Amino acid sequence: xxxxxxxxxxxxxxxxxxxxxxxxxxxxxxxxxxxxxxxxxxxxxxxxxxxxxxxxxxxxxxxxxxxxxxxxxxxxxxxxxxxxxxxxxxxxxxxxxxxxxxxxxxxxxxxxxxxxxxxxxxxxxxxxxxxxxxxxxxxxxxxxxxxxxxxxxxxxxxxxxxxxxxxxxxxxxxxxxxxxxxxxxxxxxxxxxxxxxxxxxxxxxxxxxxxxxxxxxxxxxxxxxxxxxxxxxxxxxxxxxxxxxxxxxxxxxxxxxxxxxxxxxxxxxxxxxxxxxxxxxxxxxxxxxxxxxxxxxxxxxxxxxxxxxxxxxxxxxxxxxxxxxxxxxxxxxxxxxxxxxxxxxxxxxxxxxxxxxxxxxxxxxxxxxxxxxxxxxxxxxxxxxxxxxxxxxxxxxxxxxxxxxxxxxxxxxxxxxxxxxxxxxxxxxxxxxxxxxxxxxxxxxxxxxxxxxxxxxxxxxxxxxxxxxxxxxxxxxxxxxxxxxxxxxxxxxxxxxxxxxxxxxxxxxxxx
Amino acid sequence: xxxxxxxxxxxxxxxxxxxxxxxxxxxxxxxxxxxxxxxxxxxxxxxxxxxxxxxxxxxxxxxxxxxxxxxxxxxxxxxxxxxxxxxxxxxxxxxxxxxxxxxxxxxxxxxxxxxxxxxxxxxxxxxxxxxxxxxxxxxxxxxxxxxxxxxxxxxxxxxxxxx
Lengths: 512, 163
Known about the structure:
The complex is a heterodimer. By secondary structure, chain A is of the alpha/beta class. Chain A has helices spanning 5-13, 15-20, 37-48, 72-77, 79-98, 113-137, 188-191, 195-198, 215-226, 245-257, 317-320, 358-373, 402-409, 424-429, 460-472, 477-482, and strands at residues 28-33, 53-56, 141-143, 145-151, 154-159, 164-174, 178-180, 193-194, 208-211, 231-235, 261-264, 266-275, 281-288, 294-299, 301-304, 308-310, 344-346, 387-389, 395-399, 414-421, 436-443, 449-456. Chain A is globular and about 90 Å long. Chain B is an alpha/beta fold. Chain B has a domain at 58-162: Glutaredoxin (3-Layer(aba) Sandwich). Chain B has helices at residues 7-15, 64-72, 88-102, 119-124, 151-162; strands at residues 58-60, 78-83, 109-114, 132-137, 140-146. Chain B has a 5-stranded mixed sheet with strand order 1-3-2-4-5, with helices on both faces. In chain B, helix 3 crosses helix 5. The longest helix of chain B is centred in the middle third of the chain and has 15 residues, at 88-102. Chain B starts with 6 loop residues before the first helix and ends with a helix. Chain B: It comes from Ursus maritimus (Polar bear). Chain B: This is Thioredoxin, mitochondrial.
């Protein structure tokens, strides 16, 4: 018992020295693979904490040849350009409302696609640059190269020219994100585009078929229709899978009433090019999912938005034994974002079972860095994360969908309050009444705690943000009722909710 | 910003040639040492194809060694215009500065650096916002400004550099 023979032995063999210097045996304290929302947040936080960090970011060009700069999906081909194009469409709507408010103009108002995309791409360029600067300021090494594991603690980075360099690190964070999925039918990769290509398309897409019913599909279909294009959405089954279905149907219904065509229960089986061009002409053949019916139609552009696949299959994870979900490609992690290999962590869209949202990735990335390098214990809280779908009629939500609430808490423990509302600005403009909708789901057995918040109306994102904070503070129906509304706003309807679904009372608004 | 391989620069040259108010001069001058027939560059350095006017006082920087050679080691003072494709003010300042430099009849030359193509160089010279213009004499940065300046201000800036 006791004694230090083992220590002397380690000293003799050189093992002791190695153990003492363990971390300096590696090039970096942390290497982050992927320079998107999650990766950059984690890398920068770790650098702020004094660690030696490297970020690798590389965009494999899309089948149509599109690529982009540093910042990941959100900045380049996601949230940012999407919201700007949504805004372009909203402004179009505002122009037509304007006449009712007294604005007189006599020219025909048209939309110029190239002007819009150039302006949006310029803004994105400034964001890419901003990220480069930020990494430089925080002394994070940045390499524009494709990273993959070759052995434990070591990656190979291949740049655009094919040159290979090797780097080692004590810890790794995988933040490689996702890319759009293709259909696997003839003509899909050659002739179809995806969200990767849409936001920088050098020509107006024209008559467009959007395949898919995800929020990407509906948001894109929404703003394309909003700028005046002929848009059809081809849906295999339901809209917005994973979201509250009552709200999803209302979102779709509004789009349909406002000129977006829906082909429900069809899937494309063939895409043929009839004419080359910018845009060209494509023939799409689609089959019904319920019978033998097939349809054919000609479009200028086919936009695929049927889902996204994780970029986890070609980064050498099998070489170091990181387990991935073979079917989905997603990475299962524990509540510390750690994979089954202790020195490898993951953040962002590639995580299994977590919401694919920028703020989630950023939060997870920051907290992870703090736990790894600052001894902090805080874990990322994935409960009550708010989000908004920026369709023509926006849908904001936080907490559980009605279906999920019933599943978790049982219908008898829930009380759902709801109402239709008519935004004041829509009255004079003569826009739909009895379309905007507000709903909260309360847990009766927990003080009528608000466990689900849903709003369909203008500025849904802005409204939802505030209520998300309230829910984090344990919002109950009583607290909502005690809150005085701001008048005249849309958000105030939540402070005066009275009618419950269970009462069966009519929520139609009559008159003003 | 998104790139579609060769299309990006080509497209940029087309877009920048649209004359909204006729303010943008879509001309770029080639380096004095290059042969006159050398209009295009190898595909992996997709450069725009501009119509050119004979001009020997402005050139685009190709890489680090090129910068070292033609700016740092230059006997003539050099103004370096750090610019970006996505920067509106750069598109105004660039041609204005070129004109002002040309008026100095070779006493000063101008190097253009696209900060996305040459990010390391830009970061090395601490460029954060664009346009950033550096005045370099005998390899040292002797003056600098950020943002747009008018013709008179540019002339004063250049006169000060020439000394």
